Amino acid sequence: MHTSFREFASSRIDSALHTISFGERVTDVLVEKQGESEVGIFSFSPAITSPGVTRPYFVGAGILSDLPAHRVYLSDPSLELNDELALAWFAGNREQTTMSNDIQQIIESIISDLGIRHPVFIGTSGGGFAALKHSSLTPGSLAMVVNPQTDLLRYHKQHVARYAKYAWGMTYEKAVDVLGKRIGTQVIEKYSEPLDNTVLWLQNIQDDHHVDVHMKPLLTEVHKMNRVLVRLGRDWGEGHQPAPKETQVSLLESIVNCNGNWSQVWKDDPNFEDPSSVLSRF
After folding, report:
1. I need a surface site. Which of 52, 75, 110, 147 has the fewest CB within 10 A?
2. What is the pTM of this model?
3. What is the pLDDT of residue 89?
């Protein structure tokens, strides 16, 4: 248990579960160091979809365990507030209004301590939202996201309403009206500005909601200098099905092995397209 972020940042970061206190609440981070690797992968958990799942909730070991890279799994602190809360986008709550900044501080401290030169952020769905956000805040990084949300207030009403109720103590209507002014609820505006990161986006084209409400708006607004490449999945299954495990593992192997030369990854994979090409298909 680290009694404060300052205490965490000043200590040696070992392979362990680190519980970091931020006021009355804590943030849990599971670190698995991997030798002298210069690549570090930060995995953000998506929504909890099975009953009885305990917190902290870490996701990603199934695709990361064999990779020669440092692995950092992050659990969303807001999920500790109520067992009914399954998705909170790492966006904060009424007791942790600066959560995004707090998590970014943790990330930067780990990058520095482990000597990570090539940070990678991964996430699916709601975890993809967090990966897009924190990659945008980390120059030179790469985000690999699968069916991500880009505007949490435009996600399905029942999920937003539950987040509003348990994380902020407010109604859905009030959340839509005020949360955008309090915390970062969308990443579209951020990606409309020039950024020094790379995004590899895996999108199931049978997931109509995420294609129409989340992918298209960001690709329409993305700055022309930004490196956002999309791979469309045509046979991944109906609805919100993610890219197959083998597809994700193969891509991550290329990411880890390219030594930060991110462009080599999509140049070696003809399935990746630029935003204008993707938008022309719809």
Report:
1. 52
2. 0.97
3. 98
